[in-house]
Structures are given as structure tokens and as C-alpha cells.
Design a protein that fits this description.
about 500 residues, mainly beta, Jelly Rolls, Immunoglobulin-like, 4 domains, about 10% helix, disordered N terminus, disordered C terminus
Length: about 500
């Protein structure tokens, strides 16, 4: 056990104290003594139950002689202190498995060490007074005790950036704090170790902070900000305030974001921005701008698109996440509390607006009557029964020519007189078709077709009067059979007039 601890101590000492970034070898006396004492502490501490070791939680890479080279996708390691080490693509780093007990400027802390040979490594450190991460970059050492820090090593320089946290550098036995938003660089051109301000974060321009989500979610966008000198691109992050979860993060090259984040549900969110220079080094995140997304509870059968909310006559709309807001709409005369619940809708378009009392930031939405209807056609119009079968064609249409909502189902109701007919409709796209065979019963008949959706909202109707086909009667002719007669005698013949003789007739 002691031999193993000694080997670990020697390995930490070599990795953390020997400078090799710029082709030099130098061992700082104070650093060496501190690290040697720390390593000895680490070897003794191994007699106790070992803490959970360093583990890779994502990514991939290769390990050669204790040095880890990240793949093109990078890698993320988690330390027992809950700190995360993000090794960027193709970066080379050495992570030491034994913690050190170092006396830092903030006091004694259990410290996990790493050496950055080349590339970029980010450290995200949870707030703690008793843990730290020590990164060695040749002559330059950096201790991270809280927040987010960046280490970049190239052939010519070593850079430490404090994005948002507590970072101190150690050079020639001198500690120096790196303020938030600052960058410290040690290079062949600047061996005196200079600290300068990093890029400032972008400042969001005035614009909407309240939005109405007529559907279940809304893609927030349309943000603008002033360009930042020296910025190659910008990053935006949206976070849910109730639990701090990051919902989406995007990068853009221009100082505007019009496309929209991934859709979010009604709630409160925080929007932050940061600048990124040509090396990929980010500024700190800007203070969060609060965004409020108001939800809309639509009545059954209603729907929405980018232009408006479409509802039926007599239906009502209710809002969520609207506590403390004022609501007004055309025709209301004055504003009232949005928490009161619903607004009625007649059959004319109206525009509603919600805002905080006294604010000019108003979220608006347009309510319109549902524009989907059913074009019902029954024919032939001069149908006669039992001669003609009757066809029923139903086509869903939109008054504005918009796409028919896919969730709408067509429910036809067909009656013959007062009796409902059970018909099977064939559907192709938005057209339904059925045929009614002729009836040979007593007519005339009235055929009615009423169409609604699955929520009972009427879509259209039509009717047809079917007449009876006239019946053809046989001609009114009476056939009388001629009675047989006896052969006439000579006397009768003399009394019978000749056929050619003219006779008077009553006809």
C-alpha cells in the first residue's frame, strides 16, 4: 500500500510541477513543497476507504501512458467533488486519481489535479469551501474553487479565463485572482503574465418579454442585440426559472435570433446571451431577461395557427400563467384582471391584449370564427324514386384556403324524413362520399344531411326533396266479344239492307 502511494505521489509531483508547455523545465520551490506534502497526505489517506474515483460520463478518447486524448466528439469527466471536466475535441489532458490536501489562499481544500498538455479544457465547479480543482499548464497553475473556468494550451501560450466563478493563478510562487469575465495569458511574447478583460456579453435590445402560446407550446424568437466588437458569433440560452433547467441553447453569427428556440410550454423563463471570439472563448453570460409565456386553454374543437385562434360562436377562451396581468379586448371598453378566467366570443374577430399594470409590453392574440366548413352536395337535384340513386358528397374546406387541422373528424348525420340512415362513407383526403339507393315506398321524401365535428361543432348542412316517379296507367279501352249469329234465311236476306247502303248512326 505504501509503495503504491509513493508511486502515485511521484506521478502527481511530476505531472503537476514540471513545466513543459514552452519547451522549458522548471520546478517552483513552493509549489513543489506544497505538492509533495499533498502527495504524502494522499498516500497516507489511502489507508482509509478510497473515495469514488474519476469517471468519464460521456464522450470518448484514447489513453496512452496516463494521458487522455479526446476524440472528435470530446469527453466529460466527473470528479468525486461533483466537479465536471469538459475535455474538448482533440485536447490532451492528464487526470490524477488521488486528491491532494492543499493550503490555498481560501484555506485548506481537497484538490483534484489535472495537467493540460494541449487544447481546451473547461472546469465546472460546484460552490464549496473545502474542494478545488488545480490545473497545470506548464509554468502556469490555476486553482478553481467555484463556477466555470476555461484553460487553453497551445504551442505558444497558456490561457486561463474566468467565465463565472472563482479562479486564482499561481506563477513564480505568486497567487493572482482572475476576475469574472477576465482572461490571463502566459506566452512567449508576454512572459510577464498579463490579465485583460474578455469580451463583454451582448445587451439585449428592447423588445417583447411576454408571449401568448395559443397551442400547447411556443417557439420563442425575434430577439436582437447590439453587435459586440471582436465577437465572431453569439450564443443564447433559455432556462426555466422554476427549476433552473436549460431548455435550449443556440448559436448565431449575426446579432439577432429570429428562428426560435425549441417550443416551450406556458411558464416563466430566463434568456441569457454571451459573445464568442475567434478562438471559441466565450464571455460570461448576460443577466437573465425574464420571459413570460401565457398559455391558452382552447375550447373543444378550436384550433390555432400563426395568424389567429379559431373558435366557435358562443365558446370561451381561458388563460394560464396570467396572474397579476390586465386583459383587454376590442369591445370590452376597459381592462380587467386576466385571472378572472375567460372571455366570451361571438361570431366576429376580436383582438385581445395582456400586460402587466402600467407596462407598455403587451402580448396580443387574435380570435376569429372557425373558418373550416363542410361543403355538402346532394344530387341529382331532380331525383325521382325509385328511378335515381342519390349521391352525398362532403368536402372539408377553409375560407382562407389554409390547411385543414388534422385532428378534425367529420361526423355526418343523414335522415330520410324522421328516420336516421346508417350509411358508410368513403373518405379520400378531405372528401367523403356515400350513395343512397332509391326507395320504392310511398313518397315524396325529404333527405337531410347535417355535418359536425367530433366535438359537436356544426360544419355544414343541406337537404333534398325527392319526388315519386309518376306511374303509367293502361289505356281505358273495353273490348267486347262479338256474339255468334245464325245463317240468315232468304226472307231475312231480303229484309237485311245491303252493306253499301247508307245508315244513320247515333255516333
Amino acid at each position: 500500500m505504501a509503495d503504491s502511494g509513493a508511486r502515485d505521489a511521484a506521478q502527481v509531483l511530476r505531472g503537476a510541477a514540471v513545466v513543459s508547455v514552452m519547451g522549458q523545465s522548471r520546478l517552483g520551490l513552493r509549489s513543489a513543497l506544497l505538492l509533495l506534502a499533498a502527495c504524502a497526505y494522499g498516500s497516507i489517506a489511502k489507508a482509509d476507504p478510497a473515495p469514488r474515483g474519476v469517471r468519464m460520463v460521456s464522450g470518448a478518447g484514447t489513453n496512452t501512458g496516463g494521458r487522455f486524448a479526446a476524440s472528435a466528439s470530446g469527453a466529460v469527466f466527473e470528479l468525486p467533488s461533483r466537479a465536471k471536466v469538459h475535455v474538448f475535441p482533440n485536447a490532451v489532458v492528464r487526470l490524477f486519481p488521488v486528491p491532494q490536501e492543499l493550503l490555498l489562499t481560501s484555506g485548506r481544500a481537497t484538490t483534484w489535479s489535472l495537467t493540460v498538455t494541449s487544447g481546451r479544457v473547461d472546469v465546472e465547479m460546484p460552490s464549496s469551501k473545502h474542494t478545488a480543482v488545480l490545473a497545470t499548464m506548464g509554468k502556469l497553475n490555476a486553482a478553481v474553487t467555484k463556477g466555470h473556468a476555461v484553460m487553453i494550451v497551445t504551442r505558444d501560450d497558456a490561457t486561463v479565463a474566468n467565465l463565472e466563478g472563482e479562479v486564482k493563478t499561481l506563477l513564480s510562487n505568486q497567487w493572482q485572482a482572475v476576475p469574472v469575465g477576465s482572461i490571463a495569458t502566459l506566452s512567449t511574447d508576454s512572459p510577464s503574465f498579463t490579465t485583460r478583460s474578455g469580451l463583454p456579453f451582448p445587451k439585449l435590445s428592447d423588445g417583447p418579454r411576454m408571449f401568448i402560446a395559443p397551442s400547447n407550446a411556443l417557439a420563442l424568437g425575434g430577439f436582437r442585440w447590439a453587435p459586440v466588437p471582436g465577437a465572431a458569433r453569439y450564443e443564447l440560452r433559455i432556462r426555466r426559472l422554476v427549476d433552473g433547467k436549460v431548455m435550449d441553447q443556440r448559436g448565431v453569427s449575426q446579432p439577432e435570433f429570429a428562428d426560435g428556440f425549441a417550443p416551450v410550454a406556458a411558464g416563466d423563463y430566463g434568456l441569457s446571451l454571451r459573445s464568442v471570439d475567434a478562438r471559441g472563448l466565450e464571455s460570461s453570460w448576460s443577466p437573465e431577461a425574464k420571459l413570460r409565456v401565457i398559455g391558452v386553454v382552447l375550447p373543444p374543437g378550436s384550433y390555432s395557427n400563426d395568424r389567429a385562434i379559431f373558435i366557435g360562436a358562443g365558446q370561451q377562451v381561458r388563460f394560464t400563467n396570467a396572474s397579476g396581468l390586465e386583459l383587454a379586448y376590442s369591445g370590452a371598453g376597459s381592462a380587467y384582471s386576466a385571472a378572472l378566467g375567460t372571455i366570451p366570443f361571438g361570431n366576429s374577430p376580436i383582438v385581445i391584449g395582456l400586460r402587466s399594470p402600467g407596462s407598455f409590453d403587451v402580448a396580443t392574440a387574435r380570435l376569429e370564427p372557425r373558418d373550416v366548413y363542410a361543403d355538402v352536395r346532394i344530387g341529382p337535384k331532380r331525383a325521382l324514386w325509385p328511378r335515381d340513386p342519390v349521391s352525398i358528397d362532403i368536402q372539408l374546406m377553409s375560407k382562407a384556403g389554409a390547411e385543414i387541422p388534422s385532428f378534425l373528424q367529420v361526423v355526418p348525420k343523414v335522415t330520410l324524413g324522421l328516420e336516421p340512415l346508417d350509411l358508410i362513407f368513403e373518405r379520400e383526403g378531405n372528401v367523403l362520399h356515400a350513395v343512397i339507393p332509391p326507395s320504392d315506398g310511398p313518397g315524396p321524401w325529404v333527405l337531410r344531411v347535417e355535418v359536425a365535428d367530433q366535438f359537436g361543432v356544426p360544419l355544414g348542412h343541406d337537404f333534398l326533396e325527392v319526388a315519386s316517379q309518376p306511374r303509367v296507367s293502361p289505356p281505358a279501352v273495353r273490348i267486347v266479344k262479338e256474339a255468334p249469329t245464325a245463317r240468315p234465311s232468304a226472307k231475312t236476306k231480303a229484309a237485311t239492307p245491303s252493306r253499301d247502303a247508307k245508315m244513320a248512326s247515333s255516333d
